Structure of Flavin reductase family protein:
Amino acid sequence: MFYRPEDGHGLPHNPFNALITPRPIGWISTRGKDGHDNLAPYSFFNGAAYVPPQVMFSSTGTKEDAGDTKDNVANIRETGVFCVNVVGLADRDAMNASSEMLPRNVDEFAHAGIEKTECETIDCPRVANAPAALECRLTQIVQLVGKNNFVVLGEVTGIHLRDDCLVDGKFESATYIPLSRMGYREYTAVREVFELARPDD
């Protein structure tokens, strides 16, 4: 099968949603200038650079009370900061609950029953029990082709690591089982890990 996205695929579900998998989930927390906190998962998320450490996530779509985007991007525009919380399998239901489209003044932490605490280097909340959290300062927001498509890039200014996730000096994914997005409504829990050495190592 071959199709041009502009012509449509003719399938009951969009195959593009299932082609780039698994995708790490950036559980993004922000605080607006009005003091309202927000938390939502983004599966168009990844690291972008090592030195200095940088991350990116993409937001698509819009909400009536957030202008041309969604609450987190609107907050980041106002404050210039955000936090990326790592999602483990134990938080799958809370993460999913925080994805609900709620009014801008509703705190998803409270809505989903998630304990929050303050960041150290930025004025922003974070998920208190997340395996890791990356405090970020905005470097740029890039508008992509298409309506309401934005990429947000940030420099990591502080990193929280949960103590039980450190094993023999390494951040160990087996201690929390990373949750990743597959296609459509499917997710996966990363339980099998193996090492490969580069040929030139």
